Amino acid sequence: MDLTLLDTLIRIAVPFLVGWNVFLFSQGQKNKDALSAHRLHVAEHYTRQEDLEKMLERLEQRLEKQLNNFLQTVTRGNER
């Protein structure tokens, strides 16, 4: 490939790729912000105290189960 052709391709492609990446990043940030705002709206308007209590109870049960599984795995490893 001729160096002038390669130089021309680089001069065209690099700014385009940088611009495209900036565009994708900004769109990702906008989507992230919109999703965050939506989650906050849902949490503020559609969550009741009972729902929160149930959610925290399920979270506690899952964490306790995972911790027990982890401890069983560690104690089995020490027995060998």
Commentary on this structure:
- With 80 residues, the chain is mostly helical.
- It has two helices and no strands.
- The protein has helices at 3-46, 49-79.
- The mean pLDDT is 89.
The whole-angstrom Rg is 26 Å
Helix- and strand-based class?
Answer: mainly alpha
- Main sheet summary: none
β-strand amount: under 5%
- Helices, by number, come to 2
* Residues in helix, %: over 70%
Mean of the pLDDT scores?
89
Low-pLDDT ranges: none
**How widely separated are the two ends?**
63 Å
> What is the total tally of β strands?
0
List the helices and strands in order: HH
Label the overall shape: flat
Descriptive terms for the model:
80 residues, mainly alpha, 94% helix, 0% strand
